[in-house]
Design a protein that fits this description.
Helices cover 44% and strands 9% of the residues. The chain is α/β, with parallel strands linked by helices and 272 residues long. The protein folds into 2 domains: 11-165, 3-Layer(aba) Sandwich (Rossmann fold), CATH 3.40.50.620; 180-259, no CATH class. It is globular and about 60 Å long. It binds iron/sulfur cluster. The site of iron/sulfur cluster (SF4) has 14 residues, from helix 4.
Length: 272
């Protein structure tokens, strides 16, 4: 990508998710586009580890990361949607808690929005209908893959976010894109947040009838009851995959095993 002809008359924005790819992109663009703005759409349901990681990144970048919030909490949105939990088929959470605050922040300005999709990925950035926003994909254009991202993070001294030890991606603690082993990770690392997610799930019950669950076809209570078995199966899968190709780090080992379950990914505004 050419960085010498960056247009200073438009705004340049890098939206962060608290995950490794958008963090590496922020590091990569720091000196290439000095006027760049960094923003983070805070759903209010982020992990403590995400805030800590963003604070460290902010210190490294030497400029503030603008934190954007929607004017309602997740509880209020859940109420608006009649306790219908968000799901891959009804992603109202992303629209309300991520995209809307981001697009409100941009307003009518002409903006180049930089997205951290890597050269080795085959997925789209977030889709906007706003004509004043142009998306750019520096990692794709410059051939930076997963190893390139690890390298940028290592060299900056930031490393990986702490939650990658038990979770493969960034986003809300109750994200429905999590696999069951990641819910177990939440239960063991943040039992209070797991209990809160259970509470949201129960809000959708109709008497004894379980209407909506975070994990398809299973309640969080089932995850709690079966956590040892879920962990055992995951460990087996990790061992098997590690036998094929040695992972670079704990995140890669964990994510490979989790991703072997499904190709479904969170939207790129949440998971980067
Ligand atoms: S991280 Fe998951 S739950 Fe949170 S807004 Fe994104 S898709 Fe929705």
């Amino acid at each position: 990508m050419g960085y010498k002809d960056i247009d200073p008359s438009v705004r340049h924005i890098c939206a962060l998710s608290g995950g490794k790819d958008s963090t590496a992109l922020a590091i990569y663009l720091k000196d290439k586009i000095p006027m760049i703005e960094y923003v983070f759409c805070d759903t209010g349901a982020e992990l403590r580890e995400t805030y800590e990681y963003l604070d460290r990144l902010e210190a490294y970048l030497g400029k503030p990361i603008v934190r954007l919030n929607s004017n309602k909490s997740f509880e209020q949105f859940l109420n608006k949607y009649s306790n219908y939990l968000p799901s891959p088929r009804a992603r109202w959470c992303t629209a309300e808690m991520k995209i809307k605050p981001y697009e409100d922040y941009i307003g009518d300005s002409q903006v180049v929005s930089y997205v951290g999709i890597r050269a080795d990925e085959n997925r789209q950035g977030y889709v906007t209908t706003k004509t004043n926003i142009t998306a750019k994909f520096p990692f794709k254009e410059d051939g930076i893959d997963r190893n390139g991202v690890y390298k940028l993070l290592e060299e900056s001294g930031l490393g990986l976010p702490k939650y990658y030890e038990w979770r493969s991606r960034s986003g809300c603690y109750f994200c429905f894109f999590q696999r069951t082993v990641e819910w177990v990770g939440l239960l063991e690392n943040h039992p209070d947040l797991f209990a809160k997610a259970e509470e949201f799930e129960r809000m959708g019950y109709r008497g004894d009838q379980v209407k909506f669950t975070w994990v398809q076809g299973r309640t969080l209570d089932w995850v709690r009851q079966n956590k040892e078995e879920i962990k055992r199966k995951h460990a087996e899968k990790m061992k098997k995959l590690e036998g094929n190709q040695k992972p670079k780090n704990i995140h890669e080992a964990f994510a490979n095993a989790v991703d072997s379950d499904s190709t479904e990914r969170a939207c790129t505004i949440c998971d980067l």
